[in-house]
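pasting for ref
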Amino acid sequence: MKKNEKIRVADKKPLVTIVTVTFNIIKNGRKKYFRQCLESVHNQTYKNIEHIVIDGASNDGTLNLVKEYADKGWITYISEHDNGIYDAMNKGIKIAKGKYIAFLNSDDFYHNNDTVKISVEKLEENNADFSYANFISIDSGRKVIIRGELEKFLYTMPFGHPTMFVKTLVILKEGSFNEKYGLPSDYELIIRLILKDYRNIYINEELATYRIGGLGSSTDYSTEIAKIYYDRYSAFHKFSNLEEARDIMYGMKLPENFIANFRSYANKEKYKNIDIEKVISLLICNLSECEGKNFFETNIVKEGIPVFLSSDNNYAPFVATTISSIMENTASYIDFYILDGGISIENVKKIKELKKIFPNFSIEFIEINTREKFAGFPERLHFSIDMYTRFLIPELKPDLKKIIYSDVDVIFMDDIVKLFNEDLENKVLGAVPYSFGYLNPNKKEIKDYHKRLNLSDTHKYFESGLLLIDGNLWRKRNLTEKLMREVKRNSRDIILTPDQDVFNIVLENDYKELDNKYIVVPHREKIMKTSAETRKSILKPFIIHFAGSEKPWKNPKMQLAYHFWRNARHTVFYEELIFNFCEANFLVNTIYNHNEEKKKMNFTKFDLKNKFLFVIFSPKKFIKKYINVILNSKLRQPARKIYYAIRFKKIK
């Protein structure tokens, strides 16, 4: 059988080969990262994947770990001596059966469960030979987003190797990795593919995470890269020696006639898949900016600000609205983590539509089985079991040093960077005190908090709808376990506003007070204006929090509701929100719009409010009493929906 005949394609979805190389990862303290790597591939929504692990004859127990996953059917593997990482990768290429192939190092991972799906779809749609994307780099908890930009290839790595998916036939045709270039051999292969004008497609999403600290992270390989420049660019520029080639990378000293020679060569080759003028423009613009910088540093966009939101499927539209308000007020890059209590696939896609308007954010949905995780935890009033998910945040992402958590019934009015930059003064948590309770002439509520929770008079009870968290200090103090234990320890009679009460018990007199501007609740305005300090804060709110039962999506006329609707217009949920509002209120509208029927029912302005309450709390009785009026109206279709909802016990 010929070498190329082994490449096979599934009926509808092409097979994808992913190659991971290992050697003594346990000895090097990378075991947990290797598990994360394998799990990230296994969890891909695209299932037509073969994951091949090439082990270099490890002698520290790594092979037993590899066999563990092979026994599960997650991977296939070989283990034998090799001549380094690219020799191992070339072995993977030789046995690959996929139409496309990708390389994922043992301590890197796909944080996006759709990475393979997105890449294959783009490759197929554009008949491309290889794809590339943005990636996330993590170094001691510091996260940066690195943008893929192919046109920077002349002087820097144009994109992260873990994001590249390439046709297996193409990489076989090109002779795979050239091992003589050592650790930067991936860069040399990429330059080769670009200069041979293979069709490429850029995906403007973060598709992989690269962890600093692995093989080559701190190695000086400038000599090897100089060799790459010397060999690969010789077609259009003759370097006098390796030092001259090295100067392009570190010294950014552009050789005479270099640009003219490259343009002439590119025009001669008639490149179709490279923007030649952009290549030249980026080279010129970066000559001074990149002087003295490391090879990879020229593509860094910015460090992402981690923001956690929590929601079930019912609150998905308000996740989108909150994100819209944050992004409208910042130019910074934001990493959103959604504590997912059951958001549908359709609504996840709708939330992600915001990327078309605001490209400077990433989003990850973290599924949590709240019923299992918080079994037996108390629920109260309109507070769902999802409220406890905020206890888990610093443990879910142990690399994050500083974190923002926000409820999703809020609208941001200012740049979130200002909140993120607040000094926590060595406190584990920053939060806004419940000033409304302390300022209210009727002190019964706040006194009840202190008495019920046995809080000292010096402690200011705070709200948990907005939290600024020191992740390292939280983990050091094992706060997640303490909070969970406190919930279980206290009786249902003590805990009334569950997560918030527990935060105040555990962190009594031990949190950083944030300014009241970070939580401005519309219906509290009158009381808050009685103090000069709080009056100043609420006149220019940083965050509007629609706390309580009255919500702007239920009452568009409530105070400050227009800020919610203005941001809702950015989302694809906008029409749905309007429809839901109209549908929820159609019974009352029917009464208003049919004068003749109003007379029959003898409604007056005085008793209209009571009739409305009758609709809300006894919909079944109301429809039974006024069914003829409703079904003869123009709103009979929505009425039928409610009728069947009642019939099948969706409304009691």
